Amino acid sequence: MLFLEHLDKYNYSIGQGSRSGYVALVSRYLITYLTKRPPLIRSIGSNLYKSRKKLLYTVLTGGYDQLNEIPPSLSRSKKWDFVCVTDNPSLSSDTWKIKLVGNEDGLDPILLSRYYKLKNHLIDSDYDISVYLDANIRIRGDLDSFLSHALAPDRALGLLYHPFHSSLEQEVELCTRTCRGDPKLLEQQYHFYTDQEKFSDSFPHINARLLIRRPGDRQIESLMETWFNQLLDWSKRDQMSFNYSLAQHPDVLPCYIPYWLFRVHFKKLDHI
Question: Does 171 fall in a domain?
Answer without folding.
Answer: no
